[in-house]
Amino acid sequence: MEPPPVPAAAAASPERLFDSHRLPSDGPLPVLLALLLYAPVGLCLLLVRLFVGLHVFLVSCALPDGAPRRFLVRAMCSVLGLFVWQSRPRRVRARVLVANHVTPFDHNVLGLLASCSAPVLNGAAGFLCWSRGFLEVAGAESRAELLESLKGYCLQGGNPPLLLFPEEETTNGRVGLLRFSSWPFSIVDAVQPLALQVWRPFVAVSVAGASWFTELLWTFFVPFTVYQVRWLPSVYREAEETQEEFALRVQELLALELGVVSTCLTAADKAEHLKRLRHHPPASRPPPPSSQPSGSRPQISRSMPSTENVHLIGLAQRVREVLPQVPMSAIRKDLAQTNCVDTTIANLLEGRVPFVPEAETEGFVAAAPSFYGAQDPTTSRIAPASGKLFARSAEARQLSLQERKQALWDYARRRYTEKYGIAHAEGSC
Fold it and tell me: Which of 56, 251, 336, 425 has a 20 to 30 Å separation from 74 between CA atoms?
């Protein structure tokens, strides 16, 4: 049974998927006090672990890939505060491993459990890419060339399996998964999912917009970081199943295993969220409105048009075309929480979003006469009384409300389907 759309859409808010603060500034006082007392110890651990981390890097480069190397490096990583646990370990049979993305070091941690290679998808190649444990492949600038290179890599039997992160960006791992890209599922017809959960005390696991070097310093500063990995059975692509459907099915399996929701957000939504954070940091509050002289004109901010969410405006316009009597302010306010056209329409029709209806247009009144009680579109302005009459009994009033609500819902569904089509309406989130 599919989960209800409203909770999933509510969890799709970028503010819940990405942490914008490293320290718990609004946390309980004992936690902040403990972090303050721990700071001198954390700085000492940071210096020691930087020295030990250099030796771990040298050992990783000197020893060949194999079980002895993974065991030794895993033991040395425990000195760095990285503890890796796995449950239900399975023999790797698929040529592609897919996992959710939480930290910039997920590929290094998963490499301690099984031999795998994570290709570099963005960023500069060269020594820095190799030292971080990425695999350089040809054609990384073009998606088509990259797919051909990865398919050729998988055809060679001696190469270790590929490790891919279909989310393409990191999240906090607590709320939901980003929408999986379909291209990793076009390489082979069988993938093995890995469910990854990360926990550490005091501070956030990852912060949106932070560099990998900053994350490394915080990893060495905190007492420990626990990585919990759960191996899932291999998932095979069914007959006549598209790449998008295959990716969505694997995403739902991982979300169910992690106890989170599958969202409609993508890596582009995270980039847009980071832009909003740079212009409007969460910690800063807008100044109170200052009293201006009566003769002065209010100053208009020039940065507002550049920071307007174009995607949100498009969604709001689609909702407004279906429900023209709803104010645009109420539509945008609900879309900022749901980011889904269907869910916002349902919230408006069910009365979960309070608003004052605007003057209905002639086309809307004529197209939905049953909602206003008129049987003829030509008399819709003259005879709206049957839908507005106040019945004597409570049962009759409730029945009239339900009939009008159902009529409006049917009209909105029909109008939305006629404009965008059934297939587009189903995938509008």
Answer: 251
Q: Which phi and psi angles does 264 have, rounded to 5°?
A: -95, 0
Strands 162-164 and 96-99: parallel
Opening angle at CA 281, ends 275 and 287, nearest 5: 125
Q: What is the predicted pLDDT for the residue at 247?
A: 93
In this prediction, residue 288 carries a pLDDT of 44
| Radius of gyration (C-alpha) of the chain in whole angstroms | 27
- Residue 91: phi and psi, rounded to 5, are -75, 130
Of 214, 217, 196, which is closest to residue 107 (Cα–Cα)? 196
* Separation CA 245–CA 427 (nearest Å): 12
The CA distance from 336 to 320, in Å, is 15
User: For residue 112, what pLDDT band results from cuts at 50, 70 and 90?
Assistant: very high
Label residue 366 by pLDDT band (50, 70, 90). very low
Convert 149-188 to b/e letters by CB count within 10 Å (16 or more is b).
Answer: bbeebbeeeeebbbbbbbbbbbbbbbbbbbbbbebbbbbb
User: Where in the chain do CATH 1.10.8.10 domains reside?
Assistant: 310-350
- How far apart CA 45 and CA 240 sit, in angstroms, is 54
Confidence check: pLDDT of 277 > 90: no
Q: Where are the alpha helices (DSSP H) in 341-393?
A: 341-350, 362-367, 369-372, 385-388
- Written as six digits, the tokens of 2 are 């599919």
Asked whether residue 65 carries a pLDDT value surpassing 50, the answer given is yes
Asked if residue 2 has pLDDT above 80, the reply is no
Superfamily of domain 310-350, CATH level 4: Ubiquitin-associated (UBA) domain (1.10.8.10)
Cα 360 from Cα 320, distance rounded (Å) = 12
